[in-house]
Amino acid sequence: MIGRRTWTLIRREYLQRVRNKWFLFATFSVPILMLAATLLPGFLAGRSQARPVVLAVVDRTHSGLEMRLSDLLVPDSINVRFFQPDAPVDDLQSLRAALGIDETAISLRADAYLVFPEDIGSGGEPGLVEVRDLGGRIRRIRAATEDVVHWYRLRQAGLESVDASDALAPVTLRVQAFDPAGTRGEIFQVIGFVFAMMLYVMFIVYGQMVARGVLEEKTSDIVEILVSSVRPREMMLGKIVGIGAVGLTQVGIWAVVGGTLSRFGLGGELGDLIGIGMDLAGFAFPWSILLFGFLYFVLGYLMFSAMFAGAGAMLTSEQDIQQVLVPVMMPIIVPIIIMPAVVDTPDVMWVQILSMIPVFSPILMPVRISVMSVPLWQNLAAIGLLVLAIWAMAWVAGRIYRVGILMKGKPPTLPQLARWIRHG
Amino acid sequence: MTGLEQTDPVVRMEGVNKAFGANYAVRELDFELPRGTVCGLLGPNGAGKTTAIRMILDILGPDSGRISVFGENVTPEVRDRIGYLPEERGMYQKMRVAEHLAFFGEIKGMRHGDAMREAGKWLERLGLAERADDRVESLSKGMQQKVQFIATVLHGPELLILDEPFSGLDPINADLMREIVVERKSEGATVLFSTHMIDDAERICDRVCMISGARKVLDGTLAEVKGLSGRQDVVIECEGSRTFLRHEIVESATDHGRRIEVRLRDGADPQDLLRAAVESGTRIDRFEIADPSLREIFLEHAGAR
User: Hey, are the CB atoms on A220 and B79 less than 8 Å from each other?
Assistant: First the structure.
């Protein structure tokens, strides 16, 4: 089906783009940025942890709170010292006042001073004065302080034997809907959304690459030599497959880098990064979602790139590019606009129908598959219709391409376009 | 070359029509290009030359009529045997010169290795060997023109189709181009080139085909075309009696003193006049049969439309 000439076109298209320094930059900067965003906070925190910090504690309850605090904070290399100021210090204000005049405070050379007031058991609040910026370690101190105060209050209430940290461990409410359609958990909604955005960006980016590639060959007058040697259909195929291979290379590199990251247990950080506050570390990604996602990516790319190729062939100059490309991009944008509704109610009738319509299915179906278990027949119907639509689109775009590629001047009007398709 | 006799034309067009909207670009064109000839396709701008060429290459399909090349319909295999230099010549500016040439060789069916080797040879010959790995965009315009010729002849085509090959060339490259055309012809190739520069055609063509206003107005060997104009002029330089000028085949004569321009009647033989002049005892210094120039014929036919 693909002849030797077409392979020559594909190879040129692929090599020229992959060797381009912008390709290398774009391909490798994305995972590097991801990696940096994931690792940098931990790395910086690790650096500041290397320097021990001194925390001076004023314990007005005289019940050894500083010792308990010390146990909790030693692993973070925070050294806790007991501090008994000359003046009676019972709150944040008096602590700050005392620090200015107290000889012992100065000799302690502490990085921060923490005060537990006497009434800490009955609603009194601890206070902290930072002499030097504690950075990320303030979080650890806050958690340990909370722990210590809870322990003190429980002990005051007579619950000596209870370990405060056990008693007060956070409780999560697990929610599962009774849902015959099999809607999956919240995490899958996020996956679905991320999936949709990725597909959207890739269809637009690679599609535009195809359109611009066609336009470039027209404006540089290279078309004339090409059409004397290869058929327009072969030219179009060469562009689409060549750029598609570039896309797969890029996605492949990202997948390998992403896979490696998660192997090294960075899933948790990635989860934090996306801001979903969920632990992805122990999360097994269902292969069926990936597999179908990939299939819809490839089919969707073929569909949209054929449209973009036809659009590119209508153009003669960069100026007209928006006028022609915006209508082509509409079917890619619409699914993104209705995405929140699809993620929320993936099983209502209109979503079911839209997700099987060829121009929308490449984005909507992967989202539905992520969020719920879609009946197999719907999946097959969507794929079957999509394949038919690709075939039809390739035919129409091929005819537009054949006529358009040698045309100069303004893009065609709709009646002209219809004539191109009829006579192409 | 199966089924094609040496005497069969390389290109044959029969009753070919092509219209864009209501305007005919080519109308009822019959044309044959014999093997091994260099044929100039002449005509004013917009006459339909490029459309005719595009139809020969099957870039455009004719509305009606038949076109064959090497005795066959124009299939991809047939097109592999053609080298085409369009009027508007683009190049991939970002590609390296040798790669660029190899690419064009390969879409003509060459293997990558062969294409690279041929490209190397041609670059060597045209003095561009050391630029083989440079990007096309770094070449001067003249160098890019050379690379474009190479791309046209790289795969050793039997038929060369050149659309306005000399327009925009510097004189050195134009000479080089002519040299390559003549060389290809001596190696048995057939050449069709369009031009509106008549002097080019007169210099290297065996045949001309003239199109004006979408129709063919003249077609044949250079001698035939000139003969067809039906005009014969003779220039004589002589001393002595002018009585021989009263010969019946002389239509008119203009005497400039020493030099006389004579126009003969249609179909007359200039030798008759020469014989009469010698017999009259006049001393003849020069007797020249002056062809009407192609330019005059061109203007006559193009102007008639």
Answer: no
Question: What's the domain range around A366?
Answer: 182-423
The secondary structure of A52-105 as a DSSP string is -EEEEEEETT-S-HHHHHHHHHGGGTEEEEE---SS---SHHHHHHHHHH-HHH
pLDDT tens, residue by residue, A164-186: 667 777 776 665 555 544 556 66
Beta strands in B224-280, from DSSP E residues, in sequence order: 232-239, 250-255, 259-264
**Are the Cβ atoms of A228 and B104 closer than 8 angstroms?**
no
Q: A63: domain CATH number? A: 3.40.190
Q: What angle do CA B169, B170, B175 make, to 5 degrees?
A: 85
The answer to whether position B1 is within a domain reads no
Q: Which domain holds residue B278?
A: 230-303
Instruction: Give the percent of chain A with pLDDT over 70.
Output: 81
Residue A48 gets which letter from DSSP? Answer: H
Query: ipTM beyond 0.90?
Result: no
- B208 close to B40: Cβ distance less than 8 angstroms: yes
User: Residue B278 maps to which CATH number?
Assistant: 3.30.70.980
Task: Say whether residue A227 is in contact with chain B using an 8 A CB cutoff.
Answer: yes
Query: Which B residues, 133 through 162, put their C-beta within 8 Å of a C-beta on chain A?
Result: 151
Size of interface A-B (CB pairs under 8 A): 61
Do residue A155 and residue A206 come from a single domain? Answer: no
Query: CA dist A4 to A9, A230, B158, Å?
Result: 9, 10, 21
The answer on pLDDT for A108 being more than 60 is yes
